[in-house]
């Protein structure tokens, strides 16, 4: 029943308490702080050119929304709390970058390199990350409604750190995201929210999905060899044509496994 109610609420566009770790209700998304840029592409390029391995470029809290920053090299740059809403970062190199608490609503990160990046409490609602590489990244972020087709999350950590939850449950949130063809092999997805996500053909080999929330998600054709589904919520999930399901522990999912669609 709770999944039917959530679908109804999402369709109406109403806020859902506790849906994600999002401070959206406290922010005016139409304000200049969230929609305008205080630097040009040339300014950003100049700052990047001055950076060194010992002193990476620092864009903490800078307003960069709406800029075309595609293809630029932000390797190990600090973008903590930066405003990057609707910014074009396609094909950018963000390997090892610090994007904690960054605002990237509807940003374009397609084919971006985000290997080993830190994305703690970043806001990526309706962002585009098709083909992006987030291998090894820390992603306790909100990607609700994002397009993340064919992206790589190999060895990434989207799990909740249960040792430090003073700010609430910080974890990966991919509610209603399009994850078709994404590679989550060997990723830590414990407690990650995948409700109503399209996960057709995803690679979950060796992934830890312990207590993950998969209600209503479509995992048709997913590769699950060695995946850990212990206590995962799979109510109303589509678990059809799973590859190597006998080599996973799907039967140890939550007691609502009988509510999943398996045939």
Walk me through this protein's architecture.
The chain is built from 3 helices and 2 strands; from the N terminus they run H-H-H-E-E. With 263 residues, the chain is low in regular secondary structure. The chain has a two-stranded parallel sheet. Mean pLDDT is 91; it is low at 4-21.
Attribute tags:
263 residues, two-stranded parallel sheet, 2 strands, 10% helix, elongated
Briefly say what this structure is.
With 263 residues, the chain is low in regular secondary structure. The protein has helices at residues 2-12, 32-35, 41-50; strands at 118-123, 138-142.
What is the secondary structure topology, with strand pairs?
Elements: H1 2-12, H2 32-35, H3 41-50, E1 118-123, E2 138-142
Parallel strand pairs: 1-2
* Count of runs of 4 or more consecutive helical residues: 3
Low-pLDDT parts are 4-21
Query: What coarse outline follows from CA principal-axis ratios?
Result: elongated
The percent range for strand residues is under 5%
Report on the biggest sheet: 2 strands, parallel
Distance between the termini: 21 Å
H/E element order = HHHEE
Radius of gyration using CA atoms only = 18 Å
What share of residues is helical? under 10%
Q: Assign the structural class, choosing from mainly alpha, mainly beta, alpha/beta, alpha+beta, or little secondary structure.
A: little secondary structure
Biggest sheet strand order reads 1-2
């Amino acid at each position: 029943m709770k999944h039917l109610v959530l679908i109804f609420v999402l369709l109406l566009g109403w806020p859902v308490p506790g849906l994600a770790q999002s401070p959206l209700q406290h922010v005016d998304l139409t304000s200049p702080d969230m929609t305008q840029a205080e630097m040009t592409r040339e300014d950003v390029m100049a700052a990047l050119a001055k950076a060194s391995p010992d002193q990476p470029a620092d864009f903490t809290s800078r307003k960069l929304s709406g800029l075309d920053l595609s293809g630029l090299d932000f390797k190990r740059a600090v973008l903590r709390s930066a405003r990057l809403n609707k910014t074009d970062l396609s094909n950018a190199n963000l390997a090892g970058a610090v994007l904690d608490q960054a605002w990237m609503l509807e940003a374009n990160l397609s084919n971006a390199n985000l290997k080993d990046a830190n994305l703690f409490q970043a806001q990526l609602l309706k962002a585009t990350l098709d083909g992006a590489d987030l291998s090894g990244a820390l992603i306790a972020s909100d990607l609700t409604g994002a397009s993340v087709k064919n992206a790589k999350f190999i060895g990434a950590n989207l799990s909740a750190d249960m040792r430090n939850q003073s700010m609430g449950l910080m974890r990966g949130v991919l509610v209603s995201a399009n994850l078709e063809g994404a590679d989550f092999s060997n990723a830590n997805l414990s407690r990650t929210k995948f409700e109503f996500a399209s996960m057709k053909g995803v690679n979950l080999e060796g992934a830890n999905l312990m207590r993950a929330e998969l209600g209503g998600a479509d995992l048709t054709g997913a590769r699950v060899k060695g995946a850990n589904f212990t206590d995962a919520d799979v109510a109303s999930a589509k678990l059809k044509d799973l590859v190597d399901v006998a080599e996973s522990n799907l039967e140890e999912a939550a007691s609502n496994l009988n509510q999943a669609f398996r045939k």
